[in-house]
Backbone:
């Protein structure tokens, strides 16, 4: 049956998202009240529309996790090993 998001059915994300939603439905973690194709298509469209933001969001999450693991003393020990020299021309602040 035709639907609004047919143009995305060939996108690699389509099968991944479709399978993930089907798994959630099968495990009774999700109840679909809208046609499956519309749910998958909407999510694929949003991800493709925002594809440039996704890596940044994942990187930000990763950095927040790393910050929680770090400690100031270790940071200062490493910084003490950095030579105190003037920046290369063009690298000044």
Residues:
């Amino acid at each position: 049956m035709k639907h609004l998001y047919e143009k995305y059915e060939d996108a690699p994300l389509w099968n991944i998202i479709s399978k993930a939603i089907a798994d959630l439905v099968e495990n009774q973690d999700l109840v679909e009240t809208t046609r499956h194709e519309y749910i998958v298509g909407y999510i694929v469209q949003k991800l493709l529309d925002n594809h440039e933001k996704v890596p940044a969001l994942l990187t930000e999450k990763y950095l927040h996790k790393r910050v929680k693991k770090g400690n100031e003393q270790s940071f200062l020990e490493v910084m003490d090993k950095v030579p105190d020299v003037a920046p290369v021309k063009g690298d000044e602040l």
Q: What stands out?
A: The first helix runs from residue 12 to 26. The CA atoms of residues 78 and 84 lie 13 Å apart.
